[in-house]
Each structure stands twice: as structure tokens, then as C-alpha cells.
Design a protein that fits this description.
This protein is mainly alpha-helical. It is built from 20 helices and 2 strands. Helix content is about 75%, strand content about 0%. The longest helix has about 30 residues.
Length: about 450
């Protein structure tokens, strides 16, 4: 059974990467349908069909005693993790549909004037702050087209600003649990609270963010010396400010409840689910009062990454098979041989590399099993690897694939090798700076 679990796991991982690189989606009647989750789903079905996991074992692992979701904590439950992720993603996408991010993107570029250096620092700061409170994927998908259009109009190279945006979004996504689905998965798997996570990850994120900023500045310093020949950019208007205000207020309330959730005995998935329900009800009420169609809400549902549902569930089954057959424990024994003090370095570096072999979501599912017997700091180090690994190669995260695909559609040349070239230069020092920050927290506790 161990051999079958390993083989099917390798097939799931290899199939995911090959699909992400060569066939991430297919066109059906003009619509792009993601297919990167197909091989993992087939692997999960085979795991059950070959009795590596019984149907009951797979079902129990996935549901994790659903009834107990409403009274206290329980074992790892992918349903809770998906509810938390989709709840927060819905709020972020709604803000984007309301025009908030487009407004801030164009405003940032306008503030830069003719200074490339000023544009660099403004862009890094705005993307970092927005990512902390929303979602890195949404920020990347929103800011990338505006950067490309602005640079084309100004006749300047967009690459320094595109790299800056991508690095900032995938560095500061570590700050809060909600910044990245991998944070959510790993943190929820170990029942970490919003405030508990923040107390540990705030300092490492700042360390990594400052390091990334310095490396990026030194990397593109020569290009920043020249002025922007044309800097005229029309600030995008927020057509329906009442929707933007509603979305922003809801996000703030949601963040407050996430912070106090553990103190009042509420789980984070419940807060996110309530935020989702309030968003839907509120948007429908506003549309009814204004006598208009809830177009923004409809677009939100169209844009949600539903493909993550079968992907996460199937990878969870794959990891359950590795756990049952003892594979994950053997890996944990190897990683833990050096002692707890080295957990941060071991898990931080290995998770970064593994994320770029199998993508950061499968890596997080795998590491949730491997870190079960390790120290809590091994989990935080794995979170760091799942974020920093995203800008080492495009394979590291789905955001990287979406980013490079978007650039191709916008006629901006940015190859796999270009991504790797900049990724290695920025990711390696940023990773070690972030891990150094985590070590500081470790020794202070």
C-alpha cells in the first residue's frame, strides 16, 4: 500500500505541474476552464478504488465530524478551510468589482509623476498594504494590466514594476492568515488563531519585506535613474462609491472579528462565512434600493476560483494516503533528525523548494501532515516557504501561472527563464531574511 500511495502521489504532483505549465486551462464555447486539478482528482479516485484508503477513511478525513464544526475545534477539516478562503476571497473580489483597486492603482501611478524611483516605492508600498488586508492573487490580477498599460503609454520597461508588484504581493501575503490560501490551510490545520499567527508572523514578514525592497531597488537602480518621459494617466473612477464603502466597512468588521474570534470562542471559518452571507444580502438590498441589477455581485460569483475545491479535496485525500501508510512520518523523522532548533531552516528551505516542484498548495497539504510531530515554528517556516516560493519560479504558485499568462495576453515578453532569473536573485535573500526574523521570534519566546 505504501508503494501505491507514493506512486499515485507522484502522479498527482507531476500531473499538476505538467498541466500548470503546458495546459492550465481549455477553451469550451469561448470560456476558459481550468483543468490543472484533473490529474489529482483521478489520483484521489484511484487511491480509494485501490483501497489504499477506504471510502470511510477518506470521507471521515474530509468531513472531520461536521457536527463539531459548530461547537469547538476538531481535526483538520478541508470544508472549514475552503469556507474561510472563499469567504475572504469573496470580499476581496467584491472590492475589486467596486473599482477600489483600479482606483488605487491609477492613483499610485499618477502620484509618481516623472520619477521612476518614486513609482517603484509607491507601487511597492500600495501593493504591500493592500495585500496584507485582502488577497495577493486579486491584487496581482488587478494591478498587472494597469502597470503594463501605463508603461506602454510612457514608453518605459514594465519589467521592474511587474517584478516589484509580484514580489511585494507574495511577501506581505504572509502577514495575516487571510493573505494566501496556503496560510489558511497550514494555520487552520494546526488550529492557529488569527492573533496568535499575527504575533509570530508580523516580524518575519517585515524582515522579508524590507529585504525584498532593498534587493529590488539595487537590482533595478540603474533603470530608476531615468525620468518617465510621459506620466499622464487618468485616475480610474469608482462608479458606485456606496458599494466601495459597503465592501470596505465589511472587510474592516470582518478583520476585527477575526482578531477577537479566539477570545470570544468563534472559529475563523464562521466569521468568513458570515462575511460572505452579509456581503450577498447587503449587495442585493443595495441593488433593490437603487433599482439596479446586482452586476458586481454576479461578477464576483463568476470570478471565484472554484477549481480550488476539487484540487484541495483531492490533494487532501492524496496526503491522507501518505499519512496512513507512514510516508509522511518517515519524511518528518528525516527533517526532525537535526533537532527543534533547526526546524525553521529545514522546513523553510525545503518547503520553498518543494513548492516549486509540486506547487505551493499541494506542498501545504503535504506539509500539514509532515509537521504534525514538529514544533509550531516548523509550520510557520512552511508558511514562509509557501509564500516566498511563489516568486522563485512560476510553478511555485497558481498566481505565477496566472501572472505569466496575463503578461502573454498583454503582449509583454516575460519568459519562464526571465521569471527564474529575477526570482532567484530576490527570493533567496528574502527567504533567509524572513527565516531570520522567525528565529528572532523563536528565541524571544
Amino acid at each position: 500500500m505504501m508503494t501505491a500511495a507514493i506512486v499515485l502521489s507522484v502522479i498527482a504532483a507531476a500531473g499538476t505541474i505538467l498541466s500548470i505549465v503546458f495546459l492550465p486551462e481549455v477553451k469550451i464555447k469561448g470560456k476558459r476552464i481550468p483543468v490543472f486539478f484533473v490529474v489529482p482528482v483521478i489520483s484521489a479516485i484511484l487511491i480509494v478504488a485501490l483501497n489504499v484508503l477506504t471510502f470511510r477513511e477518506a470521507w471521515d478525513g474530509l468531513t472531520g465530524d461536521m457536527a463539531s464544526m459548530f461547537h469547538g475545534r476538531n481535526s483538520v477539516n478541508p470544508v472549514k478551510i475552503l469556507l474561510l478562503f472563499f469567504g475572504m476571497t469573496t470580499v476581496s473580489v467584491f472590492l475589486d468589482e467596486a473599482g477600489v483597486f483600479r482606483f488605487l492603482a491609477t492613483k499610485s501611478m499618477k502620484l509618481a509623476g516623472h520619477s521612476r524611483t518614486k513609482l517603484f516605492f509607491i507601487l511597492y508600498g500600495v501593493v504591500s498594504i493592500l495585500t496584507v488586508f485582502t488577497s495577493n492573487d486579486i491584487i496581482i490580477l488587478t494591478f498587472t494590466p494597469f502597470i503594463c498599460y501605463f508603461c506602454k503609454n510612457a514608453d518605459i520597461d514594465p519589467v521592474p514594476y511587474l517584478v516589484t508588484e509580484f514580489v511585494a504581493a507574495n511577501t506581505f501575503s504572509m502577514f495575516f492568515i487571510i493573505g494566501n490560501p496556503t496560510n489558511i490551510y497550514l494555520a487552520e490545520s494546526f488550529h492557529m488563531t488569527f492573533s496568535g499567527y499575527l504575533k509570530v508572523m508580523a516580524l518575519p514578514t517585515i524582515f522579508g519585506g524590507l529585504c525584498a525592497l532593498l534587493v529590488l531597488y539595487l537590482l533595478f537602480k540603474k533603470q530608476f535613474k531615468e525620468e518617465i518621459p510621459v506620466s499622464e494617466v487618468e485616475t480610474a473612477k469608482i462608479e458606485k462609491p456606496y458599494l466601495a464603502i459597503f465592501g470596505a466597512v465589511l472587510l474592516i468588521i470582518c478583520l476585527v472579528f477575526l482578531i477577537i474570534a479566539d477570545y470570544v470562542g468563534i472559529e475563523m471559518w464562521a466569521v468568513a462565512t458570515c462575511a460572505f452571507l452579509l456581503l450577498v444580502i447587503g449587495a442585493l438590498v443595495i441593488a433593490a434600493v437603487k433599482k439596479e441589477k446586482p452586476t458586481e455581485l454576479t461578477n464576483v460569483f463568476k470570478r471565484l476560483p472554484y477549481e480550488l475545491i476539487p484540487f484541495v479535496i483531492s490533494m487532501f485525500i492524496v496526503v491522507l494516503s501518505l499519512k496512513k501508510t507512514g510516508v509522511s512520518q518517515k519524511i518528518a523523522d528525516v527533517f526532525g533528525a537535526a533537532g527543534e532548533r533547526y526546524d525553521i531552516l529545514t522546513y523553510g528551505v525545503s518547503s520553498t523548494l518543494v513548492a516549486n516542484l509540486i506547487n505551493n498548495i499541494p506542498m501545504s497539504v503535504l506539509y500539514s501532515a509532515i509537521t504534525e510531530t514538529a514544533s509550531p515554528f516548523a509550520v510557520y517556516a512552511s508558511v514562509i516557504g509557501s509564500n516566498i516560493g511563489a516568486f522563485l519560479t512560476p510553478v511555485g504558485a497558481l498566481a505565477g501561472i496566472m501572472f505569466t499568462g496575463l503578461l502573454k495576453n498583454l503582449d509583454v515578453k516575460f519568459t519562464f527563464l526571465d521569471f527564474l532569473k529575477y526570482g532567484v536573485v530576490v527570493a533567496i535573500p528574502t527567504l533567509f531574511a524572513t527565516l531570520a526574523g522567525l528565529y528572532v521570534v523563536y528565541f524571544l519566546q
